[in-house]
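Q: My labmate handed me this sequence with no annotations at all. I'd like to see what the chain might look like in three dimensions before we decide whether it's worth expressing. Could you predict it?
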Amino acid sequence: MPMAAEEIERLIRAGIPDAVVEINDLAGDGDHYSARVVSESFRGVPRIKQHQRVYEALGGRMGGVLHALQLTTATPD
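A: Here is what I predict for the chain of 77 residues:
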């Protein structure tokens, strides 16, 4: 069963409380999403570690119920 965009956003915000999260369904199938996650907590953290924090927030759902996620992380301007 596909994962709803709202659930992805909820999980990310629960794991990274200051995050501003934008989710887009890339294929309209509830299986392929892009996410932009902006958080002050990413400042000074290598991009790979930023992505790992997002994946940790998703609690192991990547590759399972969440099939594909194109991820962009950033710090606030």
